TrEMBL record, chain A:
Accessory subunit of the mitochondrial membrane respiratory chain NADH dehydrogenase (Complex I), that is believed not to be involved in catalysis. Complex I functions in the transfer of electrons from NADH to the respiratory chain. The immediate electron acceptor for the enzyme is believed to be ubiquinone. It comes from Daphnia magna. This is NADH dehydrogenase [ubiquinone] 1 beta subcomplex subunit 5, mitochondrial. It is a single-pass membrane protein. It comes from the Eukaryota.
From TrEMBL, chain B:
Its main location: mitochondrion. InterPro entries: NADH_UbQ_OxRdtase_su10, NDUFB10. The keyword Transport applies. This is NADH dehydrogenase [ubiquinone] 1 beta subcomplex subunit 10. It is a peripheral membrane protein. It comes from Daphnia magna.
Length: 189, 165
């Protein structure tokens, strides 16, 4: 007898639709996929399948496919083909009077191709640097000479150079020519 | 002392069996390589690059920066070559040590002397100059060494008294 009253007390707390209507609690029902669903008293039986996000896992799979199928496997195939069917070069003495090209100093075919079509040769970079140093040194020497002259002029104070301001009319001529060209094109100043 | 035993000496059935197992894998692969792969390859050659000698740093004018650059590059190349020479001599000495292990002090003495001489010469020229390859620093090191030797005698015989100089 007391058991019935206990049952009645518990019945109001059980997760059933009839308790939800009056008290406004959420009714949770388990589905075959082992996830709990919120059941609202609506007409459809279709529900949203709540589960953790698989976005990271899918992105990981995408990256693995991209880098392996389009990166590692084609590279491995190409490199295997080159190593088997073209193979490294053999060392030989330089023939008399022959100047080998830059790419003929490397054994592996891929290094040879890069040396021929991509990279600048050692000699080219060396000579570029020599020329660069020559030009920089020339300008340095001109500036040093100018500074020595200025210092001597300041020491001795025996020239009229401090009265002379160098003037060039390059800019005035350019403005005049541009104004004339504008006049011819547009008909007015 | 007799040579160490090798597989080409008188053999027994066990050795023959091992050799036969090796041959079952080796023979087809070698045949394929020698008859199919290698004849179909283009015969490319590569050469060992030889560089012309350019004036060294002691033959350059003090304001000729291009000459300095060329001398520096030649110094870098020479340092690499000399390093490889030291490596070769060291490798020969090490191999002698390992091969002649109990008698190495007696049998590898000449190689040891050679290695010590070669590494001493290398260090005379290139060592203790800091991390960068500067040809002017190496040149100045040579000058200081010659001055020191003029004042005190050969390097390794100690400094003479300052008053006596």
């Amino acid at each position: 007898m007391a058991a019935f009253s206990l049952l009645r007390a518990f019945a109001s707390k059980v997760n059933l639709p009839k308790n939800a209507i009056n008290q406004g609690i959420l009714v949770l029902r388990s589905n075959p996929n082992n996830a709990l669903q919120v059941v609202r008293q609506m007409s459809e039986h279709r529900t949203m399948h709540i589960k953790p996000s698989r976005w990271s896992w899918n992105r990981f799979k995408d990256f693995m496919h991209f880098y392996i199928m389009l990166g590692a496997i084609p590279a491995a195939l190409v490199i295997t083909y080159i190593n088997l069917f073209i193979g490294p070069a053999r060392l030989a003495e330089i023939p008399e009077g022959y100047v080998p090209e830059a790419h003929e100093y490397f054994p592996h075919p891929i290094t040879r191709w890069l040396a021929k079509h991509v990279h600048k040769s050692y000699q080219q970079e060396y000579e570029l640097m020599c020329h660069h140093i020559y030009e920089i040194e020339y300008e340095q020497k001109l500036r040093q000479a100018e500074n020595r002259i200025k210092q001597k002029m300041a020491e001795k104070q025996d020239t009229q150079a401090y009265y002379y301001q160098p003037v060039s009319s390059r800019y005035e001529r350019s403005i005049r020519d541009n104004a004339q060209a504008d006049l011819e094109i547009s008909g007015s100043v | 002392m007799e040579d160490p035993p090798s597989l080409n000496d008188k053999s027994n059935s066990y050795v023959e069996f091992i050799k036969a197992v090796y041959r079952t894998v080796d023979r087809p692969v070698t045949w394929l390589r020698e008859k199919v792969v290698v004849p179909n390859r283009p015969d490319n050659v590569y050469y060992h690059q030889k560089f012309r000698r350019v004036p060294t740093i002691d033959e350059c004018y003090t304001d000729d920066r291009v000459c300095h650059f060329e001398a520096q590059q030649q110094f870098n190349r020479d340092k690499k070559v000399d390093g490889e020479i030291v490596q070769l001599v060291r490798q020969r000495y090490k191999e002698c040590l390992i091969a002649e292990q109990p008698d190495h002090t007696r049998k590898c003495a000449k190689l040891q002397a050679d290695f010590l001489k070669v590494s001493e010469n290398f260090c005379m020229k290139y060592a203790d100059l800091g991390p960068l390859n500067n040809v002017k620093d190496a040149y100045m090191k040579q000058k200081h060494r010659m001055l020191w030797e003029r004042r005190h005698g050969k390097v390794g015989t100690g400094m003479k008294n300052q008053d006596a100089l």
